[in-house]
Amino acid sequence: MQQPKTPHRPVHVVPKESPDPLAFSSPVLSVTPRKRKALPPPDLTSAKRVHSNLNQSPAPSPFGTPKTRDNGKQPMNVTPTPKQKLQVYVELPPVPKSHRTPMSSQAHARRISADDDDLGGYGSDEGHHSNMRSSGRATGDRDDRVPLDKLVTLIEDIFEAEDSLAPDLAVSELPTEFFSPLTTDASRPLLHPSIMRKLTSYVGKVTRPTKRLRLSSRDKNGVPSTPKSSSRVSQLEIPTLSRILRILDRSVKAGEDVDPFRTSLGTVEGNGSLGSPVKARKSGSKQQKARPGDGDVEMEISPEPSDTSPIDYDGLTKALDVARDSVLAADCCIAILSSDRLPKQLYSEELITTCFATIKSQLNKIVYPFVEASTDIYGHSPPPLQYLTRTSSHECDRHRRQLTELFQAVTSVIPRVDTLICSEYAAMSEGIIIQAVYIAVGPFFMAESGDKKDKKGDVVLNTLGASSMRGLRLDALSLIRSIFANHEDQRAWIIEEILSSLIKLSNTKQKSGQFRLRDGRSIRTVSALLLQLVQTSARDVRIEAGSLHKSRQHANTLRVKEGYGDNMEGTFLEETDMAEIRLYNAGLESATKAAKTIIIFLTQRLGKTKSTKDSNEAEYRAIFDALISDLLTVLFWPEWPAASVLLSLACKYMVASMDDVKTSNTNENNAAKTMALDHLGLIAARLRTTTLKFTESSATLLSLDDNTDTKAFSALTSAHKAVDSHLLKRASEDQACASARELATVIWGQELGAALKLCGNRMEDGDSSQSTVAVDQKKLLSLGSKIKNELQGLWTDASTDVFDIGSSSDDSVDVDVLSEEIGMIQSLRNMFFPILNVVLSALEAPPVFVRTKALRALGQIITSDPSTLSAPNVRNAIEGHLLDSSPQVRDAAVELIGKYMIDSPNFAELYFTKIAERIADTGLSVRKRVIKLLKAFYPITKDRQHHIDICSRLVFRMFDEDDTVKDLAIKAVEELWFHDAYSTSAAKKVGSHAQDKSALLSKVAVIMGVSAIFKDRQSPLEDLLHQIMTGKSADETSSLHQRYAEICEVLIDGLVDAAELPGFTVVNCVRTIHLFTVAHPAVLSSTHASTLLPYLKNATTHEEQVISDYLLRIFRASIPQFPKTSVKFGQDLQLALQPMVLKPSHAAGVAGLQETVACMCAIVQHLTHDFPRLVALLRSCNTRLQQTIKKPSTERPSTAESRALTILIFIAALLCEHCNFDKLRLENEALRVDIDTITKTSITEHVYRSLVSLYEKFSESGLRGRILQCLGFLFRAQPTLLTAESSAAIMDAIFISDEEDGRSRLLRIMQDFLLSEADKHSAEQKDKGKLSAAVNGDVDMQELVGNTDGFADSGVSSAVVQRYIRYILNDALSRNEKIQSAAVDILSFTVKQGLAHPLELFPVIIALETNPSPALSSRASALHAILHGKHTTLLNARFVLSARASFDYQKSISPTNIQGYRMTPSPTALLQRWYSLVRDKRVPRQDFLKALVKVFDVEISSTSMDDVAFARYMAENFATFDYKTQEEVLTVIKYLTAILSTTGVQVVEQLSPSHLLSQLHGDALPATTSDSLPQGSPTGPIMDANHTKLIYSSVIVAIIMLLKSHLKMMYGISEDKCSKWVFGKKSALGDRPATRRFERPVSWNRLPFATRPILTDEDIAAQRTTFLEVWNEDGVTAEPEDD
Asked: Where are the stretches annotated Disordered (predicted)?
């Protein structure tokens, strides 16, 4: 009889907007299941039921349907049992001790177990945890019902409890033994969590019976018996299952939208990466609407929560319980649906989608935020999360226990989701698959705490478990692998979703996930996931191979039955063999397709240009880079065979992207080229390293393509079997090894299939040929049979020892070696040389960055195998790029060869010279790199000539324009020469003295060889040794002094015995001693000086003169340091000098006399004090001079008299320079009388007047020049003489005259004077510094009272320079090298000392920068840098004037061929050095361009041919400037356009008004030719010579138009882009780098009169025609494509 229905309940059973497939129209559903019979009396112990036929209706129950709540509350007729502390057991990881949820006392009091109803009080609880004690009942009282009986009983009890509810029952009155207190609608109660756990447990036991139940099917003797029933969930009635699923669905929906942490408000859902699927069900929004009867939990959450809002602890507790119950309900639903092959109508898409959505929601809104909150160090998490992760209280521990229960429920449901999704009896829709994918992928995008040191204090680990996240990820990985393997149509979408989700993550989340490998290294979790998916793609082949194996066995069985046996004749390859070959040939298609999806997805999102346009492109590049890096990390590992597949495809794509690298001039696909070159070098290096590793070993595996030897095949087979066995063993520990084994087997099967097919073809060919190949046929048949057997047994598991539970570390190492060797003969074995060829071809690419990256990639390859560089094509490619037009490319080439030279010095001879030449490269980075390289190469090579060459080139860098290069060179020489251990005492004690001496001798020989290269009086090596001492501490200075002394000692010993010094000569030895003596005079002792004295003689040869000159300078520098006891040496030296002074040799000349007199004065002043001899010498010279002056001017001196006079004036002037006779007269009374006999006035002034008189007396240029030189000696002694009127008159006359020798001599005298003044000043500063340090702060009274002794001399230098600056600047631009060199020296001194106004010097410096001599232009550039650093804003006023000065200078150098660029070998602007200084900062750069572009804005009425040449000169400079950004190019184009719109329009209007009117009205004009526009044509006025200025202006306007067009084409800028760009406003367009599309200067072929003058009327007419053609083409010619 039909039971009455509860009122109002049918309204909520089936929602109208979403029909429930679980609701049936059958009348069975409307009938409440009949109740069970009354239980037998308590004394009947056999009251347990066993359903023998579950398809029959259950027996009527004596209990009627409860009508009232009182009836429902009546106690069951059960035997009372003692109260026990019961806990439901769920098959989950154990809960940490601190977080085990105790059973509340109230629940114990009110709860009655459903089993107790069934068992009459004697059964044990199935839900007890394994740790709980047993009830203590006897064995005979155990509940022996099968799990299906228990499940049916529990379901009936649930239905009975629900049916017994009264219509008006309150929620608080619900029976808590069955229903949850969280229910919000009593008419639709939610099940209690313990009931749901018990349901899930029973379903699981029905699906997988326990061992006890399996044993119960045997009789007492152990003989199998027929079981009482076949326990299957499908035996339950459909209405029963439908109803229980609907009841569970309420709990599922109740927690679907629960958000206890409020993570969905203001933040991205969950982990911010995986939102709701796009392909999900359309009715989801309707299902998620709140319905009052669905039991949804209504959280009291403010719509705009703030961090300071109080936390609702009760609400948090309730929300977590609802979320847990929803997951338990979803777990139970999925357990039921996946337990058996149920009717299709039970698999409701709405139910399954709701369950999956609930699981995903609890993960995204609860589990992931809680885990990630531990990484929040800034407190950005919602308050509930901060409370859970940072609070320690009893209330917080209770909430954490709730999280523990929720997490355990989630981890238990994911394997059941896997089972349901992959079940063969239920076809899942696309929406369900997508939901499952999001659940599976989510754990891989979760950020965990990176601090694993303090595990005890980690809240997440203590709450969820130590390995909780790893377990969750493993379950998720198993799920995603199953989905990927069983749903091929979803594979591409899954991969794309994973990759696209990566860029949605923050950097912290992207970098947090690390998959730890077995060797301790890590790869990114996403990389591991992608590799696992690719490996899973091969599962279909295994299944299909199993089917073929069964069909082959069936065919063999039939063959045996029919009596054929194994003697059946036929072809070698049967149909099953061919089918197997076809299977394996296509076996990698799935894996390859998945790998292609990954590679194509990433590479298509890298962008087109070299630089990224948005953040997504940059992130995808980073993802791709990380993927390639991870692939190289696990390449050839046995458990990661997918790495080879992925890397092989990536290499093929990158190689293909470089196909057009030689011909492409545009920026198209530059991103792919950049990415390819970044990785191909590393990949090729790795492949080459592995190949060489196995090439060196004798036992090398050979691929099947390379041999037909059965032994080699057996070795290869054994290697594959060893790897396969290893993976099979590890598959029990790691599921990933199972999929790795599948893919590895498929790869091996593909090779076997191809080899087998080849054998079959060869055998067929052999059968059709003659019998001479019979022997080969036998070998071929044997090999083919082995290949066939191996192919057929690929998936056969080898018999293993049951006690062998894993592989040892030694076995793993052996397997790794085998796997690596196998990998090198598979897909990647032929990739090295294609990569090398692509890299070499990229060296010829037009873009600079491509060539640079190609060289770096080639360097990575050569590092792995240096012998690659010995290949002719590789060597030629690199050598050619040492002279590349780009400094970046040259730098990369030097870096590449440098590594090779250091690693392989045997081959360094091939490149040493070419590398050493690059030390003078125009690129700053190249020079620095070569310096470092030569320094590193120095100790490697043993060739002394190489050592000398290296050091001499380093010394030459003292002339470098860049101070950093100078410092680097000085530091390099210091380290090579003076930082050896041989000079330290410790080294002498420990090391071998002979070895130390040998090293020292070798070093001295190198230094001596270097000094021989610099033979000038002012050697740069001398400056270098001074610079080495600069800035050193006292200890470092002392150490350097000691090394200087050791070197000098070796050199002096070499004068005695030169056998030990290679390349020894006396000149080189003395020259080297002189260098160290000048650097540190104290290195030479008086004893050593005595050794040198015999070499001092009145020279008769040039060599002797050189030796004497150096010795004199050595003695002069070192004598002041000698002790007073060295008088004997002083006397000997004075005796040796006297004949050299009185009778100087012809070989010595005047230059030798200077050093001789200076040394004589030094020896007298410091050692002998023989001043009377100096006074007598001066008095004798003065007497002779006065006699010569008194002679009549008409009497011309003879040659001998002229030579004697020259010696006299030199001796007198030099004595006055080096000895202060006026001071000597005041200090020595004995000498006063003798000095007064010369003159009672100043001795220096007296000699000066005598020399001036001689200069005026004689007009001979030679004698005047020598007198002028002597005046220079006096100027150095007394600077005020230079400002005397007589001196000024002499100097003015010389500058005005055309005599170049005199001007050169005078400039040199001025330079010497300025240098001497600078030396005096620096010496005074040093003395003051020493004095101040000595007196330690005492005040100098001379300075305090205002001593003016030195004031008169202090301003002489400035006065002289300012007086003659005009002449100096003119001579600096002179074409006479001697005059120019001296003038530039003075100019350098002037700039450094600040002796003249910078605006006056600046135009000349700019002009000198354009000089074709690199040395001179570099010096000018260095001076420019000084002015630019001090007076940047001041120089802006002279931009145009300075540019014009450079043009005038070029016109003076080459009047017939003026160009604004120089080919080196690519076009380089003459003003590029100037532009390089200003382009680093935006404001000066823009000021420079704006100022110089105004040179094109000329006055039409005053234009000349010179203006045309200047405009062309500047246009060529603008066309070849090395622009840094596109803003610079756009600035020039914008200003050129403005000039065209004003001056250009005026020129067109005057030349041809009709053309201008036609353009303004938009009329089309025919092409203008010289024939259509003859002179006097009515289209324009008649031209004559009076209009040449207008014609010249038209040439300049045409130059502007051609320059603008050239810039647009060179840098790929369209007119539209120019018009959109706003001047002065920073933009992304302007900040883009300016990349040249070609390397050629602007061409004037279309404008012939830009390079030649206009002379005739025909020239005027031709220029007019050409101009109008150029003007009309503006806007008509093709525009360049934008980059």
From this structure: 1-144, 210-235, 260-312
